[in-house]
From TrEMBL:
Protein name (database record): Hemoglobin
CDD domains documented for this protein: TrHb3_P
GO molecular function annotation: heme binding; oxygen binding
InterPro entries linked: Globin-like_sf, Globin/Proto
Alphabetical UniProt keywords: Plasmid
Source organism per UniProt: Salipiger abyssi
Taxonomic lineage of the native organism: Bacteria, Pseudomonadati, Pseudomonadota, Alphaproteobacteria, Rhodobacterales
Length: 154
């Protein structure tokens, strides 16, 4: 997705768990990332428009549950994030690139190396999936859709 060949395979969740990945770490990542995202000049306006203050805490809890399901195989998450993202008409590649850059920055800062690599791999897969689904929903031609470029942060 990034246009760069992967240097190595993504770590397995068990490797990240052995390194200390747990629900508390996921909570720290989610809280730090979304605090920064909400204030970011590129993605902040989207978050503030579509997730009002009154729903912010619930949104964070949902995201924490999502990541616990994705990385720790918990079965508590039952959300459907795609329909909400499809409704964001202004969402484009610049938002995905910034989301990923900020997310990479956050997990690299807060997590041990294998855990950060696992988070990064999953986030890039998720972003690519969302991006493709949104493009299909909008009737865009996917054949010539270039991969996202990696944006540095800041």
């Amino acid at each position: 997705m990034t246009g760069h060949p992967r240097a190595s395979k993504a770590p397995k969740p068990a490797e990240a768990i052995a390194e200390g990945l747990d629900e508390a770490m996921i909570r720290r990542v989610v809280r730090r990332f979304y605090a920064m995202a909400r204030e970011d000049e590129v993605i902040g306006p989207i978050f503030r428009k579509y997730v009002p203050d009154a729903r912010w805490e619930t949104h964070l809890e949902d995201i924490e549950t999502f990541w616990c399901a994705s990385l720790l195989s918990s079965r508590r998450y039952d959300g459907r994030p795609m329909p909400r993202h499809l409704a964001i008409t202004e969402l484009d590649d610049s938002h995905f690139m910034r989301w990923l850059a900020l997310f990479r920055h956050t997990v690299t800062e807060l997590c041990p190396p294998l855990t950060a690599a696992l988070f990064i791999d999953r986030s890039e897969r998720i972003a690519n999936s969302f991006r493709i689904n949104i493009a299909m929903h909008r009737g865009e031609d996917l054949v010539f859709q270039p991969p996202l470029k990696r944006e540095t942060y800041p």
